[in-house]
Amino acid sequence: MSTLKLYSVDPEKFINHDKLPCDVYLKLGPKKFVKVIKQNSEYNKEIIYKYRDMDSSVFHITKEGMESLKQFEVNLMRKLSRAENLPTESAIARNLWTVQLMQDQVRELGVTDTVIEATDAVIKDSIKSLKDETTLQDLVDGIMRKNDYIVEHSLMISYIAIEMCQRLKWNNSATYEKIALASLIHDCTLEDPLHAQLDTKGMIMDAPIDASTKKHILNHPQDISSIVQQAKRFIPDVDKIILEHHERPDGNGFPFGFTGTKIHPLSCLFIMTEDFVNTIYNSQLSPDLIRKIKKDFEIEYNSGNFRKVLEAFQDYFDNFLNQSPGTIKV
Ligand SMILES: [Fe+2]
Ligand SMILES: [Fe+2]
Fold first, then answer.
1. Ligand 2 mean position to 199 CA, how many Å?
2. How close is the Cα of 252 to the center of ligand 2, in Å?
């Protein structure tokens, strides 16, 4: 065993599978490892849950195992993306899993064809859910399960942003692909959900975290944007949306501190959608909440390239309120 070079692996990468394409070892001491999962054999997940909760860095695999696991995930993602005509509920469950795999893959391998194929599957499902008149409450219940903020808010942004594109008549497949891909991967280099919820430079600087973590969070728009730029099949504007996703209309965002006139219209759509998703993620969805968001948006986003998107959001909010029981229609 001592001749094997082993690398720590996050158990979240393999907990959802029944069999793995590689052996997994548990670290018992500085040079002491024991094999707990045998390649291609069914395994007992109890041991993973038990040790994961104590210390998630105790699981190790070889370098070759790492490569096999990556390839295994690429194949799995491809298989998941190709399942067609799923009912909305199953499609959402599939997409939550796909987005998790996708974010790992972008970090490790970049924006591959498999990532784009998976994005297209999410777009198809979003359009189908609109045709099926899936409600906002259904999306909240299906997607925002409070298990994995980074995956869940990314998928929710994608669903809502595509609906907004339809309302704005920006409804062509190229635009859908730009906004959906940006949504699904925009925070993929952040692993801690708390870090992904730090929206402004001020929140990051005030957070009780070390300087290098602050730098990593502040740089994630540039880091992920440059991964997108290196893709073999470069999709224009995705890098820009990701680069600008923490800008704010009043110029208090980062990395540039642009105001509404300088921020790309698709970035404006993204920023407002993420703001909306974060607000409903942390609250109970209700007509009162939507009325409050509507008021806040009117004040906050009434400038530059945000203005047009604001109109679409106002319609969206009115539509929600008109369909809510107990709401007086005006
Ligand atoms: Fe985010
Ligand atoms: Fe972010």
1. 7
2. 15
Q: Global pTM?
A: 0.88
Q: How far is the CA of 85 from the centre of ligand 2 (A)?
A: 32
Q: CA 274, 94, 128: angle at the middle one, nearest 5? A: 70
Other C-beta atoms closer than 10 Å to the C-beta of 299 total 7
Distance 190 CA to ligand 1 centre (A): 9
Query: Which long-range contacts does 292-299 make (Cβ < 8 Å, 24+ apart)?
Result: 293/317, 294/318, 297/272
Look at residue 56 and tell me if it is in a domain: yes
Ranges of the chain with pLDDT below 50: 1, 329-330
Give the angle subtended at the CA of 248 by the CAs of 244 and 249, to the nearest 5°.
Answer: 115
How far does the centroid of ligand 2 lie from the alpha carbon of residue 133, in Å? 29
For residue 220, report the distance from its CA to the centre of ligand 2, in Å.
Answer: 7
Same domain, 58 and 101: no
Tokens coding 72:
């295994």
Structure tokens at 324: 């809510």
Tell me the β-bridge partners of 29. Answer: 32
Structural domain boundaries, residue 58: 6-66
pLDDT of residue 327: 57
How many Å lie between the centroid of ligand 1 and the Cα of residue 101? 17
pLDDT value of position 297: 98
Same-domain pairing of 110 and 176: yes
**For the CA of 278, the nearest ligand:** 1
CB atoms within 10 A of CB 56: 14
Ligand with minimal distance to 245 CA: 2
Nearest ligand to the CA atom of 242: 2
Predicted pLDDT of residue 329? 47
Residues with CB under 5 A from ligand 1 (ion): 187
Residues 99 and 201 in one domain: yes
